[in-house]
Amino acid sequence: MDKEKMKAEIMKQLEEVNDPELNIDIVNLGLVYGVDLDDEGNVQITMTLTAMGCPLAGMINGLVTDAVKKVDGVKDVQVNIVWNPPWDKSRMSRYAKIALGISD
Fold first, then answer.
1. Cis link prior to 85 (omega < 30° from 0)?
2. What distance in Å separates the CA atoms of residue 24 and residue 96, rounded to the nearest whole number?
3. Distance (Å, rounded) from C-alpha 70 to C-alpha 102?
4. Domains in the chain with CATH codes
5. pLDDT of 104
6. CB count in 10 Å sphere of residue 6
7. CB-CB contact of 59 with 20 (8 Å)
8. CB-based contacts of 12: which residues, under 8 Å, 6+ apart?
9. In a 3-state reduction of DSSP, which class is residue 104?
10. Is-contact 67 26, C-beta < 8 A?
11. pLDDT (tens digit per residue) in 4-13
12. What is the mean pLDDT of residues 72-88?
């Protein structure tokens, strides 16, 4: 599988990972900032959380790792949680905003 197809499959798997508090997937919440994939199948996910000091950070990290490892060709997964740029509701998809009752 080529890199672009793998990245698309990784994003599809990440759409299955819900934020435990909001019950919306991390992709539609806008928490995933980037997916980097090297030629050996090592993946680095750059993402943030809705709040600094989130008590569920470890759980979300594990869910992301498990989801990405389901993609054929993935050997290793590293989750890099960043705080810059900070997350805000403008990063959310229209679907997530509707589901949470947030207007633009």
1. yes
2. 7
3. 32
4. 3-88 (3.30.300.130)
5. 66
6. 19
7. yes
8. none
9. coil
10. no
11. 999 999 999 9
12. 95
Map tokens 């993946």 to a residue: 43
CA-angle at 33, arms to 53 and 25, nearest 5°: 70
Place of tokens 């949470």: 100
- d(C-alpha 47, C-alpha 80), whole Å: 6
Measure the CA–CA gap between 39 and 12, rounded to whole angstroms: 20
Separation CA 93–CA 54 (nearest Å) = 21
Residue 98 backbone class (left: φ over 0; alpha: ψ -120 to 50; beta: rest): alpha
The pTM assigned to this predicted structure is 0.91
- Number of Cβ atoms within 10 Å of the Cβ of 22: 15
Q: How far apart are CA 81 and CA 83, in angstroms?
A: 7
Q: CA-to-CA distance for 52 and 60, rounded, in angstroms?
A: 13
15 three-class SS: coil
- Confirm if 4 and 35 have CB atoms less than 8 A apart: no
